[in-house]
Structure formats: C-alpha cells, structure tokens
Amino acid sequence: MNAPTLIPDFVNRKSFIELSARARAQSLFDEGTWKELVGPFDHIESPWLAKQGIAPQSDDGCIVIKGKIGGSRAVAIAFEGAFQGGSVGEVSGAKMTAALDLATKDSEAGKPTAAVLLLETGGVRLQEANLGLAAVAEIISSALALRQYAPVITIVAGTVGCFGGMSLVAGLSSYTIMTREARLGLNGPEVIEQESGIDEFDSSDRALIWAIHGGEQRVGMGLADLLVEDDAGKIAAAVRDFVHKGVPEKHRSEQVELYRARIAALDTSSQIDPATLRQQWGNPKGGVR
Amino acid sequence: MEKIEFNYPEAKRLITKKAHVGVVGSGDMEVLLEPNREEGAHVFIATSVNGFGNAWKAVFDRFFSKFDGAVCIYINDAGATPGSVLLRLEQAVEVIEQ
User: Fold this and answer.
1) Does residue A278 or residue A136 have the better pLDDT?
2) Number of CB pairs < 8 Å for A and B?
3) Domain A13-281 bears CATH identifier 3.90.1720.10
4) Distance (Å, whole) CA A97 – CA A116
5) pTM score, two decimals?
6) Domains and CATH numbers, chain B
7) Residue B62 C-alpha, separation from nearest chain A C-alpha, in angstroms
8) Which of A171, A227, B37, B69 has the lowest CB atom count within 10 Å?
C-alpha cells in the first residue's frame, strides 16, 4: 500500500493480551538472558486434578522465568489464564513461593532480584481448596519478605483479570500495572451477585463491572500505579522503569492510616459512584491513558 | 478422565530436540514431544473427555503414517477436536524440525 499513514497504530502493535503466559513473561526480559525454571519438560503436574477427572497441565499453569530486565536481575512468575482460570493450586503455588523465596535469598546476599507477577487468575483453585488457600498465605508472606529488598511488580493485563486471594498479592506488591481491558478486585462480579443478589451487583452489566473493577478506575482511584496500552513493548518498558525505580519509600499496603481515614470520610448516605471515588481518592495523573 | 497409550515401534528416526505447544484450555490441548531413548515412539494421553479411544487411535495412525521420529509424546487434553489434535501435533513437529 502506498499510504502507510492510513494504517492506525493498533494494527502494527504487538498485543500483550493475545500472548500466552509463557510468551508474556519472555517478552519482558533482555534478549538471551532468560531461562525457564521447572518448565513443562519437568512434568510437575497437579496430583489432584486427575483424581477429579480434569486433565492437568505439565507446568500447572505457572511459568517461572529468571533473567535480566534492563540489565537488573529479575524473576517473572506468570499464571496462564486459559488453564483452569489461572487458579492457584498446590504445585503452582509452591512454584511461585519458591521463586519469590529464591529472589529474597539472592537479594539478601547482595544480588537484588526483582519479581514480576503476571496475574491472570481467579484466585484459589477450588479443586485443591485448602492447599490453594495455604499457597496464597505462603505467597503473601514470601512477597512481603522480598519487597523489603527489591520491587515486586504486578501486571494485570487481562482478559481474565485478577481476583480472589491473588488480588491480595497484587494489593501488597510495590507497583501494579494494568491495561484498560484488565480487572482487579477481591470478589469477582459473579461471586458478588451470587452472594448479595443482582440488586447489589449485576454481573452481566459489563459497563458497570469495568467502571468498578477496570484498569482505568483502579489506576484513577490510586489502587494501581500505571495504566498502559495493550502493547508488549510498552508494558516491557513500564516494567523496566519500575525495576530501576527500586523499592518504593512506602508501600500502598503500609498506608493503613491513610486508607482508614479515606474510608471513614466517605459519605455513604447516597450511592457512591466510580467517578466521585476517583475524584476523592484521586490519583491526579492516573486514570487516563 | 481417561488415560490412553499407544506404541509405534516402526518410528525409529533419531530426534534430538524437544517441543511444547498448546494449553490445556477448553477445546484445546497441550503436547510435549521429547526424544525417546529407545527405538520406537510412545504416546501418552490424558484426556478429560472419556470414550474417544478409537478417534485418538485414528489420529495417531495417520500422524505416524508420515512421521517416523523416535519420540515420546505426552498429551494433556481438554476436549480438542481431532482436527485441532492433528494441527497441534504438526505444530510440535515444526518446532523440532526447524
């Protein structure tokens, strides 16, 4: 074609959301510096799924890659949303915990190693309920240990989103990156509707869901740090920036007084809408791409 | 869930590379293709859909009528159709032969 200017940017960009979890994690690293740990050829599958008639996956839906990001040591832990909704079971949870613990060990030994968590997950795998819950507790304590030494960076790109126990992990990470397509919340829309009724939350109302759980709102109200386009290059650049920025002065989850005061100050006499919350809790720079 | 195994002793060509393609998502499957230390090829299938042993046999008979590598093939399947199975297998072969 003779008029390349007519082709909009999104035609040429490399989508991040369309990549598999493995390809997403790989795309963040400096070329030729990474290797996968406990990969599919190690055949470490969930021992519980087959007993319940469900085919397992050779990496249990959790991909761990170690390498360098912008020249700094880093480990990426990615959940594959297409396998069992990216849920955390015994094996995938153990892989994530072990990777975070090794990063902490290296960091303590003077080799700071950042962690990048690619969370496309509904939380605990129901088929491995108690083991999954235990795994979330372990992951949280390991992430808390690491974030003293090196940044823990969460990416929620979509389209599964990040819910349940793993949203707690996103909440205590040093930085959270989201796209407009992504969602982040403790309870997923269907769970809220199931527990509190359709008047409370209509899980078929996509506009409502994204107005509350969506990346634009989460960044706008300061519960996530950066809104990026669905572009592998831009997301990798954002991760490099946060890796270089290092550990923040104060983590969001340490600001207990600030958030207590904010919640106390909310006027609950009328329904609070997403736009008001954004104004009141405002992250003046965030929210708009 | 059903576990199915096949042997193809005629497949004797030495293979050195490994391949991993696909994901165990609805209507899809995962294939691991690894060199077999002994002669012949072995296929191990774990599928969440029961009762399609004959369809799997037909797909692999066709696959091994063209492919002669001494490999171990591991499949975790979440309901892939025979067409998708053959495509995933061809994709794995493309990875080890490139």
Assistant:
1) A136
2) 48
3) no
4) 13
5) 0.94
6) 2-8+16-97 (3.30.230)
7) 24
8) B37
